[in-house]
Amino acid sequence: MRVFDLISPIGKGQRGLIVAPPKTGKTTFLKEICIALATNHPEVKTYCLLIEERPEEVTDFKRSVPGEVVASSADQDTEHHIQTANTLLERVIGEVNAGKDVLILTDSLTRLARVHNRDAHSGKTLSGGMDANALEIPRRFFGSARKLEEGGSLTIIATALIDTGSRMDDYIYQEFKGTGNMELVLSRKLAEARLFPAIDISGSGTRKEEKLFSEEEFNTIHKVRSYLASLNPADALKKLIETLPKYPSNVEFLKKFSL
Predict the structure, then answer these.
(1) Domain range for 171
(2) Tens digit of pLDDT for each residue in 105-163?
(3) Same domain as 184, residue 109
(4) Measuring CA to CA, which residue among 44, 24, 19 is closest to residue 34?
């Protein structure tokens, strides 16, 4: 999680996209996010929204994470998937308006879009078999993340599936690409090299991240990232994974490299 915090930091009220090819450790990474939030930010109410996930995966999530798991597993019908997501969003918006800080960790935005595609009947089909109206509600769901001036915040971190062999999945990702404040890309090659979290450092980042750090920290992070960009992706990640544990916190790490 410390690599995540340095490379793609996320603040309250932001929209974050985790771009994940198959077999990149996505599920484990999501669990670690939930555990880290419960430990470091217990004031944030965390929901894990699982759509069309395998029943055994839902059970494992409920046993493994401290947040509240809201799920519509693969053995449920389309209407149940849609209702589950809509009901959670309505509930959360009420909590945010009441002044609470809330995070919805969604796995996945891709499957949520697929579900709405099955329910859409505009008569116009786009690339990959996607109905022209299918993404309207998923876009609204993802776009609902915000920080209220007088109230709480809703942060949404959602996964987008890529390289699945499905043209529809690729289309969904392209439609959501760039719509968030943060994008973190997981790499199949790094995962195959047994480097976890398999984060593509050069492909990941956060918009206006200078607002999340002090000026000194931001300048140091820029230096560190410039150095890592000079290495190949595997060496860059390995260097960061090996170096961070030598310091008790990212703050101490940045102090060392600001000299």
Answers:
(1) 10-208
(2) 999 899 999 999 998 887 788 888 888 899 999 999 999 999 998 889 999 999 999 99
(3) yes
(4) 44
Q: Are residues 90 and 203 both part of a single domain? A: yes
Residues 9-35: tens digit of each pLDDT: 889 999 999 999 999 999 889 999 999
Tokens 């999945």 locate to 169
How would DSSP label each residue in 69-96?
EEEE-TTS-HHHHHHHHHHHHHHHHHHH
0.85 surpassed by pTM: yes
Shared-domain flag, residues 160 and 218: no
**Count of structural domains within the chain:** 2
The CATH number covering residue 120 comes to 3.40.50.300
- 4 domain-assigned: no
- Look at the block and give the residue holding tokens 């942060």: 155
Contacts of 48 (CB under 8 A, 6+ apart): 30, 34, 61, 65, 67, 68, 69, 70, 71, 105, 107
The continuous run of DSSP H or E covering 242 comes out as helix 233-243
The pLDDT confidence band at residue 90, using thresholds 50, 70 and 90, is: very high
